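RECORD TYPE: inverse folding
INPUT: structure tokens
STRUCTURE:
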């Protein structure tokens, strides 16, 4: 085309030169130029259209390829994303499972360990508790058995009492009815046979009531005499009491006691002995009294392990002005303890306890029924502080009389126990110093390590002053 344009330009140049020659030629040239111009415009338009068309075609192609490519890439990305996501998901799931399993195992282990630990503790506590309950159950069972045994014993006792009650009433009414209040305004001396009886000079004008071996003290003019457990007392081997010499020969009102513990006990003494001695039967308790009865016509006479209480029960029934106690020492044979060891101490502890309780009960009984009657202990040993205490010289004259409220004894249960502990301890110490010798070095001087205690009942602990050897006395 440029070639043509250059051709036209050349032609135009030629035309211009020609025009100078020929106006006609110029006219022809103008026509030719118009034709060329139109032709060029037309060709340009066609060319433009062609380019546009081509551009559009290319644009469409590019867009199409772009879309295809984009789709393709999108699909691949999506695929890879999915694959990657799946892969990650699998790994996460795998790790999660592994971790979960691991935690599960540890949790299970810990749970098992904890469960075992708790189980062991529960089992242990259960075992201990069960054992404890078993022991308590056993104790309760034993307690129930003891209670049943005690009830049975009491029932048997009451059964005997019931069966014997008519006889007791008949016997004691016959024995004692005539003596009720008979000593009103008088002094009565109760003569028991503790060592201080030796010091007693009879009080003139007083009524004397003796028990058991008191009948052997011929200087004491007995008006009444009580003997209980007679067969044993009279026949006991080595006893100084002779039935023939002492009891039958005794000239005074004599009462022979029958123990109302059992029908067999009730049968003492024999009827022939009674007739020989010209004595009167009475019924006394055969077991420690729970009560001291005021009207002895209808009940057994009191008994706190010595006939002294039966006689005292009678003494107060006669309602005297004053009651003197002679030979009521509340003491015992020291050799007895020694010969019988701990069992001896136990035995005498029981008796001392009953005797002491008995006198304390007598005190309360008199305060209730005979408040105007004075009780006076003559030369008291272990009755000190319970009643009025007086001491006498060789001629029996009162040389000392304590004020009523001086050194008054604690007669509560605790006071009685304390008194007995102190007393037994004193006796044991005396025995140790008089008779015991060291098992190691044979020396005889001891000092007290520990007195009577609840830990080792009825024993004291002593130490040899020579070699230091310690031991319990009496020996177990
Ligand atoms: Zn020694």
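DESIGNED SEQUENCE:
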């Amino acid at each position: 085309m440029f070639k043509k344009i250059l051709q036209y330009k050349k032609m135009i140049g030629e035309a211009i030169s020609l025009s100078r020659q020929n106006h006609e030629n110029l006219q022809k040239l103008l026509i030719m130029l118009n034709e060329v111009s139109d032709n060029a415009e037309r060709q340009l338009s066609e060319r433009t259209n062609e380019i546009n068309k081509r551009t559009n075609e290319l644009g469409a192609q590019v867009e199409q390829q772009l879309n295809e490519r984009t789709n393709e890439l999108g699909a691949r990305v999506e695929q890879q994303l999915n694959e990657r996501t799946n892969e990650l998901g699998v790994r996460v799931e795998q790790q999660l499972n592994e971790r979960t399993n691991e935690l599960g195992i540890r949790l299970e282990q810990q749970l098992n360990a904890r469960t075992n630990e708790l189980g062991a503790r529960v089992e242990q506590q259960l075992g201990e508790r069960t054992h404890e309950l078993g022991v308590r159950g056993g104790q309760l069972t034993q307690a129930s058995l003891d209670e049943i045994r005690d009830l049975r014993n009491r029932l048997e006792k009451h059964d005997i009492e019931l069966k014997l009650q008519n006889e007791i009433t008949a016997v004691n009414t016959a024995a004692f009815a005539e003596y009720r209040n008979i000593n009103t305004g008088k002094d009565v001396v109760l003569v028991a046979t503790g060592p201080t009886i030796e010091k007693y000079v009879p009080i003139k004008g007083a009524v004397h009531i003796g028990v058991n071996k008191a009948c052997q003290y011929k200087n004491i003019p007995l008006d009444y005499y009580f003997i209980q457990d007679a067969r044993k007392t009279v026949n006991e081997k080595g006893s100084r009491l002779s039935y023939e010499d002492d009891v039958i020969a005794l000239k005074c009102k004599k009462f022979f006691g029958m123990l109302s513990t059992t029908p067999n006990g009730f049968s003492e003494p024999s009827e022939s002995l009674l007739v020989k001695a010209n004595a009167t039967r009475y019924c006394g308790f055969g077991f420690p009294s729970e009560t001291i009865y005021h009207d002895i016509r209808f009940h057994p006479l009191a008994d706190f392990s010595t006939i002294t209480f039966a006689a005292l029960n009678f003494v107060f029934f006669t309602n005297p002005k004053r009651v003197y106690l002679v030979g009521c020492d509340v003491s015992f044979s020291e050799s007895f303890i020694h010969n019988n060891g701990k069992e001896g101490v136990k035995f005498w502890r029981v008796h001392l306890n009953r005797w002491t309780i008995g006198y304390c009960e007598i005190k309360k009984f008199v305060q209730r029924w005979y408040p105007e009657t004075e009780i006076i202990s003559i030369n008291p040993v272990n009755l000190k502080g319970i009643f009025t205490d007086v001491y006498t010289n060789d001629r029996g004259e009162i040389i000392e009389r304590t004020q009523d409220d001086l050194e008054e004894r604690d007669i509560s249960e605790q006071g009685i126990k304390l008194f007995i502990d102190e007393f037994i301890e004193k006796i044991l110490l005396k025995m140790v110093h008089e008779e015991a010798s060291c098992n190691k070095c044979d020396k005889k001087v001891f000092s007290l390590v520990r007195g009577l205690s609840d830990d080792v009942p009825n024993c004291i602990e002593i130490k040899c002053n020579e070699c230091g050897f310690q031991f319990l006395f009496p020996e177990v």
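NOTES: The two ends are 156 Å apart (CA to CA).
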